[in-house]
Amino acid sequence: MKRCLVLMLLALLLDGILHPVWGEELSDPVARFTFDGPAMAQGLQRPKPVLLQRAVLGTDRCGRMDSALQLYPVDHALAQVDGFRMGDAVLETFAVAAWIHPRQLRGYRAIVEKFAADNNQRGFRLAVKDGKLRFWWSSTGMVEDPAEYDSVESDGILTPGAWTHVAVSFSHGSVRFFINGEPDVRSSSNVRSIAPGVAPLGIGGNPATTGFLFDGLIDEVTLWDRPLGKDEVAALYAAGGCE
Known about the structure:
- Residues 92-231 form the LamG-like jellyroll fold domain.
- By secondary structure, this protein is mainly beta.
- It has helices spanning 2-18, 22-25, 230-239; strands spanning 31-36, 39-42, 51-53, 56-58, 68-71, 78-81, 93-102, 108-116, 121-129, 132-138, 149-157, 164-171, 174-179, 182-188, 201-203, 216-224.
- It is 13% helix and 42% strand.
């Protein structure tokens, strides 16, 4: 009898390892924005209200109404979180993931970024540029210092009109993209940290400019102050399926 119980517990443990669950394996994000009706933000270590600026809630990848951020660039629509901080010190490790449904892939369109217009402070930006993912970051937060910022683009090209899971993992200047749970390009940079700052977090653009605005749907934007491994991203993508 004891042997049977031990075997059953072992089987459950192995199942958890082989099939990670979002709530357990990836339960330590700094913030997660689900856009599920009024509860648009979950798991915030530093809670801040999510402000919809001419944006509305739309249908997510599973057909659930009012469960994704719907953006039209002609309206300068975005979601904003004022005074958002990833931490009190520079970030040497970082990750961000999201589900996106772009209507078009032309131009430069922000998925999520930290930018303040009053002092031109920017920590990072994950965007789509002409069909590829693009990640920009600064160790000082100031865009005028070319020695302290860098950017990387993915090899993989996204598909317009389709839901895609995208992620980028950063560790001491090493950057790796993931598209639908699969690893993409890996790159290294001499810019080895990201400035946290108190700039607003913009989802789908930033409130200061009319450029770089996303056209489509964004959902489940999640940020970590640590990198993600390929198995974690694969599990995150798999957990996002619709029953």
